[in-house]
Design goal:
40% of the residues are buried. The protein has 338 residues and is α+β, with helices and mostly antiparallel strands. The two termini are 29 Å apart. Strands 1, 2, 3, 4, 5, 6, 7, 8, 9, 10, 11, 12 and 13 form a 13-stranded mixed β-sheet that branches. The protein has 2 domains: 155 residues, 3-Layer(aba) Sandwich (Aminopeptidase), CATH 3.40.630; 169 residues, Aminopeptidase (3-Layer(aba) Sandwich), CATH 3.40.630. The chain is built from 9 helices and 13 strands. Helix content is 30%, strand content 29%.
Length: 338
């Protein structure tokens, strides 16, 4: 254990938080990503805690508070050399902050913006290659948390593999004649569809797929990132023609850390998709994936990856059917304070 004096510094200004954010993640804090990070930090009114030993920064975490739920989310939790005693010391501070703010629940790690820096402590046996949204850490973190009254709230599995080009309209098993797949034609139309998309996700995703905090306005930040690095077809919708209602939708974006020899992105992350309960078991997930994959393949995408909650049997079965492998497992932990 390091000897000498330890100091805790509370960082409130977004600039200072971002300046030290690299201490809490294995994923690069690139200069061209800072505007998206800043936006979510400001929207969430997030703060950071810095652990300093004899003038040297040795630990860091970010946190935000959902007062209505008495819930403290934490993220970017990391210490120098992954030292066991430092992890325990920093965790004590996390507990103290929760108590001081009247939070009965502590949950994380959630690294906002999650589309860039992901969530969860990486479990043993996972791939440690650099990827957008996939933090890397040794198992000592979750071991200590689990020994100190935390439990696994959610398990997220990342599936990754070769992007199979599928034309769902040529699969006899399904009849899509009552449905229309479409992408927004411009940013204005996407903004008009925003609330429909948010409502479909909020009302129809299981709790295990609703991991991130409800940060009002973060969808616009997400949209900015996708349109800066990707294309409009990475937002996809399905309309039920007889009722003229949108009954399914999804989102994707490029893994900006995965490129081909020409420097072009080659890995498309399918971030989410949802189908209204009345229209499930009709192949709409395959319908959305297939028609989006055709466009992605034309743009040179050859790899597909994406997070799926461990208990999502339908999407897991679809991934397995097309030879996509389980490459990573991340654990979101929670503690109920007495």
């Amino acid at each position: 254990m390091l000897r000498g004096k330890f100091k805790i510094k509370l960082l409130k200004k977004p600039g200072k938080i971002i300046e030290n954010l690299h201490l809490g993640t294995s994923i690069p804090i690139r200069e061209d990503l800072k505007k998206y990070i800043r936006q979510d930090i400001v929207l969430a009114e997030a703060k950071s805690t810095l652990l300093v030993h004899e003038g040297i920064k040795v630990g860091y975490f970010l946190y935000l508070i959902d007062t209505a739920k008495s819930l403290l989310y934490f993220g970017y939790f990391k210490v120098k050399n992954d030292d066991k005693k430092l992890i325990t010391l920093l965790l004590e501070k996390l507990n103290t902050i929760a108590k001081e703010n009247g939070c009965n629940i502590i949950r994380g790690p959630i690294n906002i913006p999650t589309i860039l820096y992901g969530w969860g402590f990486m479990d043993e046996g996972s791939s440690s290659t650099l990827s957008l949204g996939k933090p890397v850490n040794p198992p000592i973190y979750q071991k200590i948390f689990l020994n100190l009254d935390f439990y696994v709230k959610f398990e997220e599995i990342t599936w990754e593999g070769r992007m199979v080009k599928i034309n769902p309209l040529q699969i006899p098993k399904y009849d899509f004649s009552e449905y229309e797949y479409f992408n927004p034609k411009d940013r204005k139309e996407l903004n008009q569809l925003k609330q429909v998309m948010l409502n479909l996700h909020a009302k129809n995703l299981p709790p295990s797929a609703r991991i991130t905090p409800d940060i009002e306005g973060s969808f616009d930040n997400y949209t900015d990132f996708v349109l800066d690095f990707g294309k409009l077809y990475m937002f996809f919708f399905v309309r039920h023609l007889p009722s003229d209602k949108i009954v399914a939708c999804g989102t994707s974006f490029p893994n900006i850390f995965s490129t081909n020899k020409k420097g072009n992105f080659n890995n498309l992350i399918y971030y989410s998709w949802v189908v209204h309960p009345e229209h499930r078991r009709k192949g709409l997930a395959l319908y959305m994936y297939g028609l989006t994959s055709i466009k992605a393949k034309k743009d040179g995408y050859k790899i597909i990856s994406g997070p799926i909650a461990k208990d999502n049997k339908a999407n897991t079965a679809l991934a397995q059917k097309y030879g996509i492998e389980n490459t990573r497992r991340h654990l979101i932990l929670e503690k109920i304070r007495n």
